[in-house]
Hints:
By secondary structure, the chain is of the alpha/beta class. It has one domain: Pyruvate-ferredoxin oxidoreductase, PFOR, domain III (Pyruvate-ferredoxin Oxidoreductase, domain 3), CATH 3.40.920. It is about 40% helix and about 25% strand. The chain contains eight helices and six strands; from the N terminus they run βαβββαβααβαααα. It has helices at about 15-30, 75-85, 105, 115-125, 130-140, 145-155, 160-170, 175-185; strands spanning about 5-10, 35-40, 50-55, 70-75, 85-95, 125-130. A hairpin with a 7-residue loop joins strand 2 (about 35-40) and strand 3 (about 50-55). Helix 5 (about 130-140) crosses helix 6 and helix 6 (about 145-155) crosses helix 8 (about 175-185). It is globular and about 50 Å long.
Amino acid sequence: MSTKNIMIVGVGGQGTLLASRILGNAVIKEGYDVKVSEVHGMSQRGGSVVTYVKFGDKVNSPIVGKGEADIILAFELLEAYRALPYLKKGGKMIINDQQIDPMPVITGVVEYPADIGNKLSALCDCTVTDALALAQEAGNTKAVNVVLIGVMAKNTEIPYDVWVETIKETVPARFLEANLKAFDLGYGI
Length: 189
C-alpha cells in the first residue's frame, strides 16, 4: 500500500488528539506502519491544533507537507480553510461546520470570514456536516471528533468492525455508548 497522509485540524479542546489515537490504533490493527505527529498551538486557550497521521507499508516521517494530504479532517471551519494548502489534488476534506471565534475575532480586530463551507466546496472535494448536531443527537457534544472519524472511516478501506473495536478500546467506558452512536451517525453520512 502506498502511504496515506491524513491531517487532523481543529481548536484546542475539540478532541483532535483522541481522533488521532483512534485513527492510529485502527490502522495498526490492519497491520500498517503508522507515524503520528502532534503540533500543539495555544490549545489550552482555543488555539490551533494540528495532527499528522501517516500510514502504509513503511512510513519514514510523520510530517505531511503542503499538497500531500489525502484526507483533511477539520473540526472547525476556519481551521479547514487554513489547512487547504495541504490537501493534495484529488484529496478529500471532511469538515465540521462549527465556527469557533479566534481571539482576533473575539476582540473585534477582524471579522470571521463568511461562507467558508461553500467557498471550500467550490475549491475541493469536501463533505461539510453539522457534526456538533450529530454529537448532540448521540448524547455528548464532545463526540464531534468521533462523528468526524465516522465520516472519514467511510472513505477508507478499513472495515467498519475494526473502527468499532478500536473505539471500544480507546474511548473511556463512561463515554463509550455516546461515542459509538456518534461514530454510526457520522458513518451514515
